[in-house]
């Protein structure tokens, strides 16, 4: 009974705190995925570029952020980012150490890692688009914007969506590493609750269950999105 009360939503329970921490984890992952989407699109364009220097830069980015441990990237962003902000602040007359908000550090660090994987997803999706359709569109004089809107973007979205789902799950797990910065996400909050009550097994299992819940809901959302995109693509193809 006492264990149930500790997970409850009363004054002595940690239930509401854990749920808020889970929402923080989702918000952090969404922000990181958005950062990664922008970076991934830019890097994918660079890797598909005709210019060798652009392809080289894209390869270096994906190699570094897929090869370096995620925790090391977070440490570099956390300490390096604070040092950089402090140095810039001192140029403008600020005194003392200036810390960067952990949420911002987490979104940028996990976003940079996510961007490396999303870049490969987008690159593969672009290469999967039928060249015959693009050549046919150009042959009939279809404007570039129309080609992108009616042919390229719908098919890239269709091919990339499963990979983006996998990147989301990866970023969701990587968000747990942001606990080292002190951000009250799910793992950090589970650890604080465990230390406060000395019920380590209970709260780490509860944290793991919430991660599994978020993963299960995410899988359902992405499966529905894939099914919707697939139906829309088949409907448009039949219409054309």
From TrEMBL:
Under the GO molecular function aspect, what terms does this record hold? transmembrane transporter activity
> What organism does the record attribute this protein to?
Trinickia terrae
Q: Where in the cell is it found?
A: Cell inner membrane; Cell membrane
Where does the chain cross the membrane?
A: 17-44, 98-117, 200-222
The UniProt entry, under InterPro entries, shows: AA_ABC_transptr_permease_3TM, ABC_transp_permease_HisMQ, MetI-like, MetI-like_sf
> Which superkingdom, per the lineage?
Bacteria
Quick one: a GO cellular component term? ATP-binding cassette (ABC) transporter complex
Q: Name all ABC transmembrane type-1 domain ranges.
A: 22-222
Say if the entry is tagged with keyword Ion transport.
Answer: no
Keywords for this entry? Cell inner membrane, Cell membrane, Membrane, Transmembrane, Transmembrane helix, Transport
Q: What is its main location?
A: membrane
Q: How does it sit in the membrane?
A: Multi-pass membrane protein
Its protein name is: ABC transporter permease subunit
- SUPFAM superfamilies listed in its UniProt record: MetI-like
Q: Name the family the entry cites.
A: Belongs to the binding-protein-dependent transport system permease family. HisMQ subfamily.
Q: Which PROSITE patterns match?
A: ABC_TM1
């Amino acid at each position: 009974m006492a264990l149930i009360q500790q997970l409850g939503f009363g004054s002595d329970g940690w239930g509401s705190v854990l749920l808020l921490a889970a929402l923080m984890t989702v918000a952090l992952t969404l922000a990181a995925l958005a950062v990664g989407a922008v970076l991934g699109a830019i890097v994918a364009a660079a890797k598909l570029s005709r210019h060798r220097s652009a392809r080289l830069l894209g390869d270096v980015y994906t190699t570094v952020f897929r090869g370096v441990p995620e925790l090391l990237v977070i440490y570099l962003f956390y300490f390096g980012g604070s040092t950089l902000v402090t140095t810039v602040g001192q140029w403008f007359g600020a005194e003392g150490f200036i810390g960067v908000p952990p949420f911002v550090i987490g979104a940028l660090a996990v976003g940079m890692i996510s961007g490396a994987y999303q870049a490969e997803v987008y690159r593969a999706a672009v290469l999967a688009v039928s060249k015959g359709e693009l050549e046919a569109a150009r042959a009939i004089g279809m404007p570039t914007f129309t080609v992108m809107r009616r042919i390229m973007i719908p098919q890239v979205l269709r091919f990339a969506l499963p990979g983006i789902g996998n990147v989301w799950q990866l970023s969701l797990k990587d968000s747990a590493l942001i606990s080292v910065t002190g951000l009250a996400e799910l793992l950090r909050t589970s650890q604080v609750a465990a230390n406060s009550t000395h019920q380590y097994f209970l709260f780490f299992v509860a944290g793991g269950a919430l991660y599994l819940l978020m993963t299960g809901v995410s899988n359902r959302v992405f499966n529905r999105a894939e099914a919707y995109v697939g139906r829309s693509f088949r409907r448009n193809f039949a219409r054309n």
